[in-house]
Amino acid sequence: MSIAIDSMKCRACGKCLDVCPGSLIVRGEDKKAVIRYPKDCWGCASCIKECPFEAISYYLGADIGGMGSQMTVHTEGDLLHWRIKKTDGTIETIVVNKKDSNKY
Ligand code: SF4
Ligand code: SF4
Fold first, then answer.
1. Of 14, 39, 85, 86, which one has the fewest beta carbons inside 10 Å?
2. All domains of the chain, ordered by start, with CATH?
3. Which residues form the 4Fe-4S ferredoxin-type domain (predicted)?
4. What is the three-class DSSP state of 100?
5. Region 11-37: what's the mean pLDDT?
6. Measuring CA to CA, how many Å separate 7 from each of 3, 4, 27, 63, 94?
7. Nearest ligand atom owner, CA of 26
């Protein structure tokens, strides 16, 4: 599992750098975020949830059945809207209430 950072959406706020527990994200020459060691990412999703501009997505590879889909998240209050964009262009959205996160 890894993440992908869309440099067109990144506004160089630095929030993802601060939250990555493995310090895997650094600033590029343009000050925008770059993942340094994609293979070391263990998919904790901290950076994805922290980015205010939805510039970071999960890359869901074939190894976990994602076949190249990408997943982003949008936060509205306590609700996380996980948006999965599949390779055929279709989009699926899963809404999770953060208050329910310890139920499962
Ligand atoms: S998903 Fe977690 S481990 Fe991977 S780059 Fe983001 S914050 Fe770091
Ligand atoms: S949190 Fe988002 S906008 Fe800010 S530096 Fe990271 S990728 Fe760029």
1. 39
2. 2-100 (3.30.70.20)
3. 1-30, 31-61
4. helix
5. 96
6. 13, 9, 11, 25, 25
7. 2
